Amino acid sequence: MSAPLLSVRDLHTYFYTEAGVAKAVDGVSFDVGAGETVGIVGESGCGKSVTALSILRLIQPPGRIESGSRIEFEGKDLVTLPDDEMRRIRGNRISMIFQEPMSALNPVFTVGDQVAEVARIHSGLGRRKAWDLAVETLALTGIPIPEERAKQYPHQLSGGMRQRVLIAMALIMKPALVIADEPTTALDVTIQAQILDLLMHLQKEFGTSILMITHDLGVIAETTSRVIVMYAGEIVEQASVTELFARPHHPYTEGLMHSMPHIGHDQERLNVIPGTVPSPTSWPHGCRFRERCPYSWDLPEREHPPLYDVGAGHVSRCHLALEPERRNHPHPPLVVVEGVGAA
Amino acid sequence: MPGPTPVSAATKPAQPRESPLGLTVRSILRKRSSRVALVVLGVIVLVGILAPFIAPYDPAAQPDIVALKNLPPSLAHPFGTDPYSRDVLSRVLYGARLSLTIGILATIVSLTVGVAYGAISGYMGGWLDAVMMRVLDAFLSIPRLLLLLGVLVAWPHLSVWALILFLGLSGWFGLSRIVRGQVLALKHAEFVTAAQALGASRRRILVKHMLPNLVSPIVVAATLGIAHVIVLEAGLSFLGIGVPQPLASWGNIIQDGADQVATLWWMSLFPGLFMVLTVMTLNILGEALRDSYERRS
User: Fold this and answer.
1) A118 at B interface, C-beta within 8 A
2) B70 vs B230, which has greater pLDDT?
């Protein structure tokens, strides 16, 4: 593979709160190639959204990207780029699709104005031309009679329509990379499928790379080619989609897969991973998943696991790579035994 | 026959455009009290605008200071005359013009300063916000009337323009607080992050994305603010340190008849009535506007 489009190296994003330093993203490295779709999956609070916002440098104080972190994109280091240059990248070369289509649109402007604004900021188009381009882009996202819809306010559109508007805003400048932060979470299931199809279709048309951030493995399976699993501010596993679903290595990934509902399986209740993500102000020493893990032993308690290569471009942050036979002897995780954090 | 329309939405015509402003106006007009208020206020404003054309006399003319002074209401002088033989009706009409103008202009001054101060304080945050808010606390701790009295006693015989300026500059503290609070809340609105993510500059976000969302609270503050300024101006004029003679303002006219209020009742009744109606209708409309936007937010 040639040089990747986006290359994140050793990203640390910390929040300096009164409760202590929250290490929301704690040493994350990954690449996104041109035209590739990469998924980041994990529970709430695992650091996936902060990773996304860090790439666009939208971390607000008290949050900060620590020095030593590097985010290389089209030959520039986004971490040290001057503010005005960074602004020229946002919405133009890298754009973002947000989770809540209602709150991500300004309620007092027509949707056409909001799509056109992006073009006006970045291409200096006149009002008329920007509007025409906005209508054209809205049409691409499958909005019927876009010239009429463009004149409406966000509250007059359905959730699915609003999400199409956000996609139009993200794509109007034909960016090289689109970060989609839970783009379908707020939508009905049927609309979800439509929006994902649309994204995939537009990606092929524009050759855009997509960084898909979600907690939904179904979305990952449907749209991405490579998956990054995040837990407690770190990458815990990375592999191609087929490899990951065929041979999940990290117990956390395994847990996520077990907790997916399956059609046809008669189950009284869903499997859940016991316990919750620990607090980012005090990640446990050793393995951060240890207390919720059914295989943990003394090694994970002593040593923070590195990313082990487990074959076929597949890496996993789990000591089971050293002692695979332990997988045959699961035990109740510590949170269950000690009754801490269990729901 | 053409084939079936592919998308259901295409078959029904798009809904009419409805801007937030249009929604506000409609919701206000739905209430009878605010419709009445709007009509009454409209008449007073119109009377003020048309004063030069409908006033029967020159408001400053003193035709016969002996024979025509202190006349009770009659057909020739429907609101009577004052101790200088001036026609009170003409003075009340011109008073409407002046009092409303002062109210509106002073409020524009307050809005400009208050919105800018509050928006910058809230948007910049950090130590600047802390300093600006402490300064504001200091201003807020001085009663507005006392502040104005101090200034006007120190500089007597100020022009109307200076009066407007001081009325405006003493009235933005509360609004500034409101604007700051709203900007603080909007800073974390997702559409602001979205605008940032799409490359909007800080100034663009503040001016284009935040301020339009503050129109409702600002309009409410402005409506109530005009009423407040009118009352203040009348009070200062009544004390003889507001609008300079021979200009007519409602407070001025009442002052002219103040020492004989028992006999010259028309001198306080008519300007007082106009003032009460103006202030009341402004307050009713202000409340209606507040209701309408609080219901939506």
Assistant:
1) yes
2) B230
